[in-house]
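Hello again,

I reread your note about wanting to compare the complex against the isolated chains. To keep things tidy I'm splitting this into two emails, and this first one only covers the full assembly. Below are the input lines as submitted, including protein chains and any nucleic acid or small-molecule components. They are followed by the predicted structure of everything together. The single-chain runs will come separately.
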Amino acid sequence: QVTLKESGPGMLQPSKTLSLTCSFSGFSLSTSGMVVSWIRQPSGKSLEWLAAIDWDGDKYYNPSLKSRLTVSKDTSNTQVFLKITSVDIADTATYYCARSLSTTAFDYWGQGVMVTVSS
Amino acid sequence: DIQMTQSPASLSASLGETVTIECLASEDIYSNLAWYQQKPGKSPQLLIYDASSLQDGVPSRFSGSESGTQYSLEINSLQSEDAATYFCQQHHDYPPTFGAGTKLELK
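Full-complex prediction:
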């Protein structure tokens, strides 16, 4: 059974660094072609893909946010991390991690973690 | 980035009716198009991938089709549980991009 679960601070102040963790089970990120992505959704709005890391450790970033994003994974291939620097109110959203195989669709999603940026 | 223009933004239909949601890609995405259903407070669920392939466990009343760079999601025999927001997404190239969403309400 594939499951993903996001965790994060809930709330943080503008200009701080947001750190998110995606913990997953039921698949291995070391499997050829496997990819874990981060996607966010402001309340009432559409989805925005942020970053991904694949089975080989290759990293992919949304060009519009690339300078602020860092995606990584742990050595056991059971967790993926995302850091977003210099957050502001516009980064307030629900953040999801999701699985895909190479450039296929996202077949499994986490439940999401809501992050609020506020002073 | 590939732009996905989704329409309509919202629609209202009755139980048992058929509805169609469309997405227009800004360039050829070679059938690499997915459809998701999202209910309030829940994460998106994959319905269709590769434009017309039904994800395991998804009812057959959902179907996808394409014509050039125009992609469609059709829902037949609407059920009450189909009330949700639907998103298209191109999975042809990085960065993956989503449509703005279509909110489907049942009358």
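For quick reference: The mean pLDDT of chain B is 97.

B.
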